[in-house]
TrEMBL record:
Quaternary assembly: Binds calmodulin. Interacts with NDUFAF3.
Segments for region (Disordered): 17-44
PANTHER family: NADH DEHYDROGENASE [UBIQUINONE] 1 ALPHA SUBCOMPLEX ASSEMBLY FACTOR 4, UPF0240 PROTEIN
GO BP: any one term: mitochondrial respiratory chain complex I assembly
Alphabetical list of InterPro entries matching this protein: NDUFAF4
Family: Belongs to the NDUFAF4 family.
Name the UniProt record assigns to this protein: NADH dehydrogenase [ubiquinone] 1 alpha subcomplex assembly factor 4
Cellular-component GO terms for this entry: mitochondrion
Biased composition (Basic and acidic residues): 17-27
Length: 173
């Protein structure tokens, strides 16, 4: 409904408004600053002469500059002619696979854990906090102690609680 109302106002007297805009005089552009013009050097012959003059002192200094460049020797590979950039090798560790082993990744970088490992260690700490301390978890999963403390503080696994079904007496109240 609102679209119809706005369309009526938008199309009202369109032709006369368009004619009025077309018949208006075009505004003159603002004058440019005189230093912005490129032809200022044409009126000053001393500037042109300075541009075209050779400076022998600068040329002799330029001739004294010598740049020597050496490429490091390339390594020959049997597989192909293209070279690859050296990449940083990360230390990997095998994951501690739980009952979801097929869904989890097999190798993880040191200092990181997979989702399944995170859920497993959080659950182990929740069930047995005396055994699974932050120090033991950090040593077991190759993590930093401050990261493990933050993980145990801010992430809590869900708990499923079943409440007894309400009886008919409780519903009638």
């Amino acid at each position: 409904m609102g679209g119809r109302v706005t369309r009526v106002f938008r199309t009202f007297n369109v032709e006369s408004r368009a004619r009025r805009e077309i018949s208006k005089e075009k505004p003159t552009p603002a004058p440019r600053h005189r230093t912005a013009r490129l032809d200022t050097t044409a009126h000053q012959p001393e500037v042109k002469e300075e541009i075209l003059r050779r400076d022998d002192r600068l040329l002799t200094l330029l001739k004294d500059v010598y740049v020597e460049s050496r490429d490091p020797p390339g390594q020959v590979k049997d597989g192909g002619g293209e070279q690859r950039l050296p990449c940083k090798q990360e230390e990997k560790r095998l994951t501690k696979l739980g009952h979801l082993g097929a869904l989890d990744v097999k190798k993880v970088s040191k200092g990181k854990i997979s989702i399944v490992e995170a859920l497993t260690l959080l659950n182990n700490h929740k069930l047995h906090p005396q055994i699974w301390t932050a120090e033991k978890i950090a040593a077991e999963y190759s993590l930093e102690l401050k990261d493990v403390n933050s993980l145990l503080e801010f992430f809590i696994p869900f708990t499923v609680q079943e409440f007894p079904k309400e009886t008919k007496k409780a519903i009638k109240s």
